[in-house]
């Protein structure tokens, strides 16, 4: 087999990879909030003020940078005033999007902000455009972030919080093309400007406002937003109406009526998934191109605030709760997406995998009966990648032929890679998407001296391998011994269906 070389100029970092591309998402959906993050103060599951202690610990370990809440589709049904004040007096509502269950609002603004403080994560609050008012959104921001004796600051104090919180990220609605109001792009673009005008910067709090963006390849939606983003009127934030435009893209294996099974899939299914996951590159490139035309200075960020796998729900669970298992396949879907976010660090300012606990491509699964916590294979990819947070993106240029496979009529490259550098270290990420064949890559490391290395590998005998309470480490990272010195740098073995990271010490 001819040698495949990956050339990396260690001395030529490009844009900084924002740690916020490692963001997460927690919606009032199924067992994400209730039973995931929130168990209540009286639970036998160890908790701090109602929030699961082990969930906090696990997410702190992967340095969760931000958390998006309360939705998703739920955000445009949510009225924040229902979620403040004494818990036993909060009004109830129907969560019509997700399971048609009654929501008792016991997890609201104060609980979410408490959670973010425990996680040391920055809050990304998503406001309601679909069924909410401009005044409601404006007052929520005042409640959260104002320090003096304004009406909303006084109400917050009355509810037990003296100091304002810092809220750096605020979403102007969610999926207005669908569950968020079924609007046209032009109608929403006007509303986004209107609502964003009243999302004010109080005191020292400066909000990065995120307009609700496109579904998948709807480039016309992004264009409609970019067209209005720069037309400044009086009384506006000098930075423009919004600083981010979002994008949602989910990886499914079939169609939306039958998305494929999370754990029972064939090798062919594996390749279809990889092809569809790799499509994120085409989408990011496409939306970035539209944005470049209107914003060549790249002041507005692309915020991929929903991404990940979406399978058929696990047998026997509520179809509206979107609970699914998470295999090695999910891990490689994650690594492929993260590579793209690294490569487009100049435009992608934030990303949020959906969703943190018990919903879709989760980091963590909790057992409703025993309370056991399981770390998913996807969690381990996030753990292995913490070295990319706020590091300078490095180009990885392949020399030689990257193995490919024909999937659904297209040639799909079976190797994905990215790299970054920070201070005296660099991190190289390598995904071998080949279900059956191992391969070896020579890292041609240029520009700086490499004084040492360590490596980790995430793989398992079966593509379908996943973690459960009984077998929590069926898929877990291990030290990788298949890395050898090479005249050009290092030679790295990549087992079939594996994710490998190589950490370099640089002189
Ligand atoms: O993440 C689940 C749902 O997917 C979100 O609520 C919605 O925004 C998207 O359609």
Structure notes:
This is non-reducing end alpha-L-arabinofuranosidase. One of its GO terms (biological process) is polysaccharide catabolic process. It catalyses: Hydrolysis of terminal non-reducing alpha-L-arabinofuranoside residues in alpha-L-arabinosides. With 507 residues, the protein is an alpha/beta fold. The protein folds into 2 domains: 3-10 and 393-506, Golgi alpha-mannosidase II (Immunoglobulin-like); 18-390, Glycosidases (TIM Barrel), CATH 3.20.20.80. Helices cover 23% and strands 27% of the residues. It contains 9 helices and 27 strands. It has helices at residues 53-61, 109-119, 134-145, 151-158, 185-197, 219-229, 267-294, 328-343, 377-384, and strands at residues 4-9, 23-25, 47-48, 51-52, 66-69, 93-95, 101-103, 122-127, 169-172, 208-215, 244-251, 301-309, 348-354, 364-366, 373-375, 392-394, 397-399, 404-407, 410-413, 415-422, 425-432, 439-446, 450-458, 478-479, 483-486, 489-494, 498-506. The strands form 7 sheets. An 8-stranded parallel barrel has the order 2-5-8-9-10-11-12-13, surrounded by 5 helices. Strands 16-20-21-27-23-24 form a 6-stranded antiparallel beta sheet, with helices on one face. A hairpin with a 5-residue loop joins strand 6 and strand 7 (101-103). The longest helix is centred in the middle third of the chain and has 28 residues, at 267-294. The chain is globular. The two termini are 33 Å apart. The mean pLDDT is 96. It binds alpha-L-arabinofuranose. Alpha-L-arabinofuranose binds next to loops.
Layout: helices, strands, pairs:
Blueprint: E1 4-9, E2 23-25, E3 47-48, E4 51-52, H1 53-61, E5 66-69, E6 93-95, E7 101-103, H2 109-119, E8 122-127, H3 134-145, H4 151-158, E9 169-172, H5 185-197, E10 208-215, H6 219-229, E11 244-251, H7 267-294, E12 301-309, H8 328-343, E13 348-354, E14 364-366, E15 373-375, H9 377-384, E16 392-394, E17 397-399, E18 404-407, E19 410-413, E20 415-422, E21 425-432, E22 439-446, E23 450-458, E24 478-479, E25 483-486, E26 489-494, E27 498-506
Parallel strand pairs: 1-22, 2-5, 2-13, 5-8, 8-9, 9-10, 10-11, 11-12, 12-13
Antiparallel strand pairs: 1-17, 3-4, 6-7, 14-15, 16-20, 18-19, 20-21, 21-27, 22-26, 23-24, 23-27, 25-26
Alpha-L-arabinofuranose binds at residues 27, 71-73, 174-175, 306, 354-355, 360.
Keywords: Carbohydrate metabolism, Glycosidase, Hydrolase
Organism: Cellulomonas oligotrophica
EC number: 3.2.1.55
């Amino acid at each position: 087999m001819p040698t495949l070389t990956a050339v990396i100029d260690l001395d030529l970092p490009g844009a900084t990879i924002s740690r916020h591309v490692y963001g997460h998402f927690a919606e009032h959906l199924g067992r994400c909030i209730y039973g995931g993050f929130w168990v209540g103060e009286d639970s036998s599951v160890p908790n701090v003020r109602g929030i699961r202690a082990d969930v906090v610990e696990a997410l702190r370990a992967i340095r969760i940078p931000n958390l998006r809440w309360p939705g998703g589709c739920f955000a445009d049904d949510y009225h924040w005033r229902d979620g403040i004040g004494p818990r036993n007096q909060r009004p109830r509502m129907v969560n019509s999007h997700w399971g048609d269950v009654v929501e008792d609002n016991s997890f609201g603004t104060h609980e979410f902000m408490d959670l973010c403080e425990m996680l040391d994560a920055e809050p990304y609050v998503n406001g309601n455009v679909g069924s909410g008012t401009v005044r409601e959104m404006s007052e929520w921001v005042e409640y959260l972030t104002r320090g003096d004796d304004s009406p909303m600051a006084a109400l917050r104090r009355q509810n037990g919080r003296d100091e304002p919180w810092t809220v750096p990220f605020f979403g102007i609605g969610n999926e207005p093309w669908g569950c968020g109001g079924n609007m046209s792009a032009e109608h929403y673009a006007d509303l986004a400007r209107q609502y964003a005008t009243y999302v004010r910067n109080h005191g020292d709090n400066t909000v990065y406002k995120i307009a609700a963006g496109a579904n998948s390849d709807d480039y016309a939606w992004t264009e409609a937003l970019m067209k209005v983003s720069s037309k400044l009127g009086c009384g506006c934030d000098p930075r423009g109406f919004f600083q981010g435009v979002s994008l949602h893209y989910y990886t499914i294996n079939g169609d939306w009526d039958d998305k494929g099974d999370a754990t029972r899939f064939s090798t062919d299914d594996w390749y279809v998934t990889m092809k569809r996951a790799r499509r994120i590159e085409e989408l990011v490139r496409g939306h970035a191109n539209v944005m470049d035309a209107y914003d060549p200075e790249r002041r507005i960020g692309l915020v991929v605030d929903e991404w990940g796998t979406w399978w058929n729900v696990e047998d026997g669970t509520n179809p509206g709760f979107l609970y699914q298992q998470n295999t090695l396949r999910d891990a490689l879907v994650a690594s492929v997406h993260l590579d793209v976010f690294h490569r487009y660090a100049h435009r992608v300012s934030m990303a949020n995998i959906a969703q943190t606990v018990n919903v879709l491509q989760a980091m963590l699964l909790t057992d409703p009966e025993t309370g056991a916590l399981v770390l998913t294979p996807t969690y381990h990819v996030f753990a292995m990648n913490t070295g990319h947070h706020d590091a300078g993106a490095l180009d990885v240029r392949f020399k030689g032929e990257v193995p490919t496979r024909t999937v659904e009529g297209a040639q799909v490259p079976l190797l994905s890679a990215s790299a970054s550098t920070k201070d005296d270290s660099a991190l190289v990420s390598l995904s071998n998407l080949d279900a059956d064949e191992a391969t070896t890559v020579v890292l041609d490391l240029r520009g700086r001296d490499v004084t040492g290395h360590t490596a980790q590998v995430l793989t398992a005998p079966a593509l379908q391998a996943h973690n459960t309470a009984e077998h929590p480490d069926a898929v877990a990272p291990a030290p990788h011994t298949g890395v050898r010195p090479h005249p050009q740098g290092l030679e790295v073995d990549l087992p079939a269906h594996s994710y490998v990271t190589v950490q370099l010490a640089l002189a």
